[in-house]
Amino acid sequence: MNLSALSQKRILVVGDIILDRYLWGDAKRISPEAPVPVVRIRQQSEVPGGAGNVAANLAGLECPVSILGVCGNDEAGNRLRKIFLEKGIDPLLQESIARPTITKTRVMARGQQLLRLDEEEPRILSAELEEKIIARFEQKAPVCDVVVLSDYGKGIFQTPNLCQRLIRYCKARAIPVLVDPKGADWTRYQGATCVTPNTAELELVTGNAGEESEPELHQSASAIRRRFELEWLLVTRGSRGMVLYGNDDSALVIPARAREVFDVSGAGDTVIATLAAGLASGLSFAEAAHLSNLAAGIVVGKLGTQPITRPELSAAMELNDMQRQSISTSKIAALESARILVKSWQSSGQKVVFTNGCYDLLHPGHIHLLHQSRDLGDRLIVGLNTDASVRRLKGNTRPILAERDRAAILSALGCVDLVVLFDEDTPLQLIQAIKPDILVKGEDYRLDQVVGREAVESYGGRVCRVPLLQGYSTTQIAEKIASTQQS
Fold first, then answer.
1. pTM higher than 0.85, yes or no?
2. Which of 20, 145, 269, 417 is catalytic?
3. Which among 151, 229, 142 has a CA at the least distance from the CA of 184?
4. How far, in Å, CA of 241 to CA of 235, rounded?
5. Is 118 a catalytic residue?
6. Structural domains of the chain, ranges and CATH numbers in brackets
7. Contact 77/92 with Cβ under 8 angstroms?
8. CA–CA separation, 13 vs 161, rounded Å?
9. Sorting pLDDT into bands at 50, 70 and 90, what band is 326?
């Protein structure tokens, strides 16, 4: 899929809009006033939550998006409007004097949430406010390709009337309607194109508490889809991936793609946003579900409410294609595989470190340099000279170990994430292709002697020289072995 197609499609998101505030700090002592931690605030941030996070995910995918919902006539509402505009989101915010903007403030320390403060008055919309929402919806929906209803149970969809009127309006005009549900009453979602519950939300409707077997899940999910006249039902199951149920009672099981889970908050928003973007750009439901599964695997690796971005999704798609084509994803990789892996790592915020060498007869000096290199970032790639390259540099008696053996030994080290062979005399072409964040050499090199320095610094990377462990040399070891054999 060419993600540039997303920029041509407009999505309308309707739902409960929330302002998510984060207070980031350090908690190193207990208060003398009460048995609670004292948090010293270092940083504050504000992001859209609820339906606003769905819109933020669509904006991150560079998809034109409008957000329709209710906010208070207050400072938090003004902040949300400003944030939406900064993100390129069209804010259709209906102000209400009777209800404040929903605000959730989270106190964070060492990557953990210590406390959440909620400011809200969830109540059913007045008839007047409901009609204003419908009027604005009917103005915007005709120019949109997909509509998303994001229900957080905060009031906008508390009665079936509004939700049903929006769904019927879209069905009459063949506009797909996707719903992220809340609560046990799904009559309000009757006739939607697709509903995207997680397993807990589905259990509220089916009444089947506890872990269901695969056949039981398929049976209850299919029954729910038919009962509420849904074309599709996409059930997200966390670490178990998701299942897409179609109107022919088919069930497509999609395994999870998360690399590392830090925070699942907002993952459902990412799923429905990416699903909507994929459908709008012409993908089938199955293809769009696979795409949303990739996106969810990225955002659960982030801390706090953070949306997906197009570069992140593009990198994940490339990596997924590589794996599907059975291109090796072991620690020994060809250049193109390495390029895709590096792009994927960097898109998720990881720093990639690169160093290189012949590594013939691995010794403690090599291990020392590799560990120091790995400590500078999150991933370490080792560029390894091929046998032909080593012979040109060291002479016909080298290497002692063949390239496949040297690569196998390096790949067995826990500090090494990837080994890439290169046939040139220097790793310059390899460095230019994979674009590492940090280039490492031993301190016996002057900066002006480091091959690839200019290339790395040209895109904002840096070069590091690390101390060597003295007294170790492959050449000396080889000479000692030779002299021992002669004697």
1. no
2. 269
3. 151
4. 9
5. no
6. 3-28+40-310 (3.40.1190.20), 335-486 (3.40.50.620)
7. no
8. 18
9. very low
